[in-house]
Amino acid sequence: MAAPARFDDDAEIVVIGAGATGIVAALAARQAGASVIVVEAEAHIGGHAICSGGNLSFGGGNSYQKKYGIEDSAELLFRDLIDWTVVEPNGAPPYRYNDHELARAFADNSVAAFEFLLAQGVRIVEQAPDNLSGHEIGMSAPRTLHAAMMDWPAVQTGKLADAAERTTTSSGNGLMQPLYAAATAAGVKFLLRHRMTAIHREATPSGSVTGIAVDNDGATRHIGTRRAVIIGTGGSSGNVNFRRMFDPRLTDEYCGLAGMPWSDQDASGELAAMAIGASLWGLTNFSGEYGTGVTKPGSIGCQYGYANLRWFPGSEVFDKARATGLKVGDWQNVILVNMVGRRFYDETGRQFTPNLYGSFAPYRPGDWRNARAVAYNPSNFINAALAGIGDGRNGGGPIWAIFDAEAVARESWDPFPPHVDSDGGFFFSAATIEELAANIVMKHQRVPMPPANLAATVDRYNGFVENGVDADFDRPTPRYKIATPPFYAAWATPHHAVDCGDVIVAPLRAAQSITGRWSALVCVTTASIPAPRSNPSDAFIAAKSCTGKVSSSKRRASGHGRGSYDVRLV
Ligand SMILES: Cc1cc2nc3c(=O)[nH]c(=O)nc-3n(C[C@H](O)[C@H](O)[C@H](O)COP(=O)(O)OP(=O)(O)OC[C@H]3O[C@@H](n4cnc5c(N)ncnc54)[C@H](O)[C@@H]3O)c2cc1C
Predict the structure, then answer these.
(1) Where residue 463 falls among pLDDT bands split at 50, 70, 90?
(2) Where do the domains of the chain lie, and which CATH numbers do they carry?
(3) Separation between Cα atoms, residue 428 and residue 434, nearest integer Å
C-alpha cells in the first residue's frame, strides 16, 4: 500500500503484535533509545505467549546453566540446531532444513537474550535446566528453563495461582506480564484493538517502508515509522488457505488452534509483507512431522481442546471458548471414529513423538551413526486422523470420541456445559448409538454419519473387548464395552498447535527484498528453526538491528550478515 498523505501517529520503531516477539522487540528498541509504538489487534496483550507453558529454551551457556553446572556454548547450540544426522522415531529430521544464518544468530545471542529477560523482571523457577522443549533446542545439553507464574491472574482462569505454586509453576503469564510492565514503564506506547491491515512502502520493488495502516474498531488509521516496522504477528496457522499451501489436509475443521481464542495467528503479517514485495523463506518446518504442529486433543467436547491449554469460566475469553472440555485421562475409555462412524487407528496411539535431550546414548554431534541408532517406530495417529474418508476431498473431517455412561463415571466427567459445548455443535448425547449418530449435525460434519455404521463399529469394538484383542488396530487390550446409555459423541478432532514451527514463517527474510532509505521491514519469527521458543531472542536481535546496536549492521546492510535479520538500511 502506498504511503498516505498524512499519518495519525508515528514513532521511530513501529511493532505489530504484542506477543513474545513484539513486546521484547519493543522493549529492546526503547531501551536503545528509540520511540516505539506497538499495535495489537486484540483488546489484551500477550498473544499465544501469555497462554503458553512459559518453557524458555535458550542455552548457549547462560547464568542458570552455569549455576547448575551444565556445560554449553553458542558453538554447541549452533551445531545442535543444524545437525542433519538427528532423526525422530518416524524418520523426520528436525534440524536438517533449519536456516543456518538464523540458527547462528539465535545461538550467538541466546545468552544475551535470556539475561535480558531476567533483567526485565522475569522470574525463573528455581531448578536445573531440563529437556522439556523436546527436540527444538538440540541434543547436547539440557536447556529449558521455566518462567514462574508469580502474582498475575492466569489468563486461562482469571485467577491467581495458589501461593505455593506461584514460584514453582511454569507459565507464559510469568514471561509476558513482567515484560509488558517493563515496556510500559520504559515508555513504549501500546495501541490495543489496533489491527494492522497493510504496510506502507513508498514504492515496490524499491522504496522505504514508511508505516502501517490499522483498523481501530472499524476506523482506519495510519501510523508512520522513522526507522523500522517490526512484524511480530505470530504466524499463519489460523489462516486456512495460507496453511494449506504447506499441507492441503489442514482444512477448516482444524479450528481449535492452540492459543485461540485469546488471539489469532491469521497470516496478516506475512500477507502484508508479501504485498510490498517480501518473500518468505525456510518454511519446510511448517509441516514437519515432529513436535506438536498438529496434535491429538487433550480435552474433548469443545472447540479448543489443545492438550496444554484449557479455558475456564473466569477467563476473559471464556465467552468465545464456550467450554472447558473433558480432559481425557485414559483413551481406553473412548473409541474415536471419523465422519462416517468408522474407527481409524489405535485410540491410545500418540501424536508425533520427538527425540529429546537424553534420547540418544551417546549423542555424537554430526555423526552419521546417530540416524542409524534410531529405531524406526512411527506414531501415525495424526496421519490416520487426517486421512479423510476417501471421497476425494481434502481434510480428515471431524473426529468424534464415542463413549457411554460408564466411561463418564470412570473419568469423573460432568458432561454438561460449561464442560462441553453442546450449543456450538461440539458435543452430542442420545439414548441409543443410532440416535447419537443421527444427532451429529454441525458445520464441519459435511456428510451425515450413517447410524448403521456407528452401530456396527461399536458392536465390533465391543466384540474386541470380549476377546481381548483389537483385530483392526491392535489397540493394547481393549478394556471397556460401550454399552450403557446415555451415549456420547465429543469433538476429538486434532488441533493445529503452533508450538513447533509456530508456523510463523520466516518472514525475517522479507527484509531481504526491502531497500529502504531509513526504514526497514524486520520480520521476526522462527519457523526455520523448529524452535518458536526462541522468539524473544530473535526479537531482541531484531530490535538491536533496527536501532543500530548490532555491531554487524554494516554487513547486514549489504545483505551478507550472518545474523538472521538482513535489514537493509541504505
Ligand atoms: C498453549 C501453548 C503453549 C505453548 N507453550 C510454549 C512453551 O512452553 N514454550 C515456548 O517457548 N513456546 C510455547 N508455545 C509457543 C509460543 O507461545 C509461541 O512460539 C510464541 O507465543 C510466538 O510468539 P509471537 O510473538 O510470534 O506470537 P504471539 O505470542 O502469538 O503474538 C502475536 C501477537 O500479534 C497479534 N497480532 C496478530 N496479527 C495482528 C495484526 N494484524 N495487527 C496487530 N496485532 C496482530 C496477536 O493478537 C498477538 O497478540 C506455546 C503455544 C501455545 C499456544
Answers:
(1) very high
(2) 9-289+498-557 (3.50.50.60), 297-349+400-491 (3.90.700.10)
(3) 12
